[in-house]
């Protein structure tokens, strides 16, 4: 029986449709060696509530060789409701395989959802951090251009002017200011303050 289970491919037994894990009436028929129209009849004659029927069985069409045929998409609960009536060793192994296939697909979907959520959260955190850095950089650049740079240039120019002396009779040398790229008309000699002298 375990050898029979090993040969079954869970990925073929169930699929994802929207946000649900489903199988189809054709797959059920194929795996249990039943004729598809017998599975359709079984579904359409189920002795269950309308709510259970509509929640677990969706009538759809498929195309085969240019013709349209009916099949049902079946949820895990719907599949269990139908296949539990099948008997025999082979049927028991396939029922077990269907249960494992549904659970396997559910686990894959949960892993994908958790992985997506984790990656989404990490990206949003990085986005917010970078946005804060960009915002702070913009504010600092604005502060630099409008406030700090002009203040510092004015202080540097005042300090340089305080450190300069004019000597009458020497030829005038141009002095370039930091705030303008023009030339100063004064001849200046810069004498650095050296307390050791």
Describe this entry's structure for a reader.
The chain has helices at residues 2-6, 10-13, 25-31, 36-44, 50-56, 76-83, 89-162, and strands at residues 15-17, 20-24, 57-64, 67-74, 164-165, 175-176, 183-184, 189-190. The chain has seven helices and eight strands; from the N terminus they run ααββαααββααββββ. It has a four-stranded antiparallel beta sheet. Strands 5-8 form a two-stranded antiparallel sheet. A two-stranded antiparallel sheet has the order 6-7. It starts with a helix and ends in a 7-residue tail after the last strand. 58% of the residues lie in helices and 16% in strands. The chain is rod-shaped.
The 3D shape can be described as rod-shaped
> What letter string, H or E per element, gives the SSE order?
HHEEHHHEEHHEEEE
Q: Could you tell me the radius of gyration in angstroms?
A: 41 Å
Could you name the ranges where pLDDT drops below 50 across 5 or more consecutive residues? 1-6, 175-191
* Content-based structural category: alpha+beta
Helix coverage percent of residues?
A: 55-70%
The major β-sheet equals:
4 strands, antiparallel
Mean pLDDT, rounded to whole units? 77
- Order of neighbouring strands in the sheet with most strands: 1-2-4-3
- Alpha carbon gap, first and last residue: 103 Å
Number of strands: 8
- Give the amount of beta strand, in percent: 15-25%
Instruction: Tally the helices.
Output: 7
Concise description?
By secondary structure, this protein is an alpha+beta fold. The chain has helices spanning 2-6, 10-13, 25-31, 36-44, 50-56, 76-83, 89-162, and strands spanning 15-17, 20-24, 57-64, 67-74, 164-165, 175-176, 183-184, 189-190. 58% of the residues lie in helices and 16% in strands.
């Amino acid at each position: 029986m375990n050898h029979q289970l090993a040969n079954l491919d869970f990925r073929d037994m169930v699929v994802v449709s929207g946000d649900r894990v489903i199988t189809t009436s054709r797959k059920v028929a194929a795996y249990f060696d039943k004729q598809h129209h017998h599975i359709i009849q079984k579904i359409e004659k189920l002795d269950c509530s309308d709510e259970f029927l509509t929640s677990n069985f969706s009538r759809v069409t498929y195309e085969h060789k240019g013709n349209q045929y009916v099949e049902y998409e079946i949820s895990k609960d719907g599949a269990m409701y139908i296949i539990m009536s099948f008997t025999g060793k082979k049927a028991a192994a396939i029922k077990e395989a269907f249960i494992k296939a549904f659970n396997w697909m559910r686990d894959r979907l949960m892993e994908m959802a958790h992985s997506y959520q984790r990656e989404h959260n990490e990206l949003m955190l990085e986005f917010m951090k970078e946005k804060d850095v960009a915002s702070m950089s913009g504010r600092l650049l604005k502060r630099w251009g409008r406030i700090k740079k002009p203040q510092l240039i004015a202080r540097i120019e005042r300090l340089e002017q305080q450190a300069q002396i004019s000597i009458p009779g020497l030829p005038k040398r141009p002095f370039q200011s930091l705030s303008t790229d023009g030339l100063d008309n004064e001849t200046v000699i810069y004498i650095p303050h050296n307390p050791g002298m």
